[in-house]
Design goal:
Elements lengths: L8 H11 L4 H23 L14 H22 L4 H12 L5 H10 L6 H9 L1 H13 L7 H13 L4 H9 L1
Helix pairs in contact: 1-2, 2-3, 7-9, 8-9
Length: 176
């Protein structure tokens, strides 16, 4: 039985992008991990063992790491030029997936972790629907009957704030 050749870095990147949209930062992190694993396998397969059974330092780790980073960065540039990697598409995808469950603050924080920001138009649209979205999340979690107990209202407030809804929106929702 013949073993298959490992997929190229580009094939792995396109495979990841086929599953879902990725930001450049996120895809770079994943590809660097894949490249380091590939280098480790190559090092262990070709490095002769010393007398103690440990691999010798035949490879320049720092040079290989820099070459791997350069290869990943070049690949990311090529993917962006070919239209496979598009950060505006990533932002829209993330908005579509997260908007029904989270508030604007949480979505913006998540995008900031990827080094991205919402456009002014997207941000205003998200803020305009925040009360409706908070109401849907609240109804799904706590039901239609508002609680009169202070501790329960505090718990509901903490829940909605943790989901990234604005404090003013939470106050308006729980008052109504």
């Amino acid at each position: 039985m013949a073993t298959r050749a490992p997929l190229s870095l580009k094939s792995r990147a396109i495979g990841l992008l086929a599953q879902r949209e990725h930001s450049r930062t996120e895809l770079r992190r994943k590809l660097l991990r894949i490249e380091r694993q590939r280098q480790e396998r190559a090092r262990s397969a070709t490095a002769p063992a010393s007398e103690e059974g440990e691999p010798s330092e035949a490879f320049d780790d720092e040079g290989a790491a820099q070459a791997g980073e350069a290869a990943v960065d070049a690949l990311l540039d090529a993917l962006a030029a070919e239209g496979y990697l598009d950060e505006t598409r990533f932002v829209e995808s993330r908005l579509h997936v997260r908007a029904s469950r989270f508030g604007a603050q949480r979505i913006q924080q998540e995008l900031a972790q990827h080094g991205l920001r919402l456009g002014a138009e997207q941000q205003s649209a998200l803020r305009a629907t925040e009360l409706e979205r908070a109401r849907e999340v609240w109804l799904k979690r706590f039901g239609a009957e508002p609680s009169r107990e202070v501790t329960e209202r505090a718990r509901q407030t903490r829940f909605l704030l943790a989901r990234g809804f604005a404090p003013e929106v939470v106050r308006r929702l729980l008052r109504a």
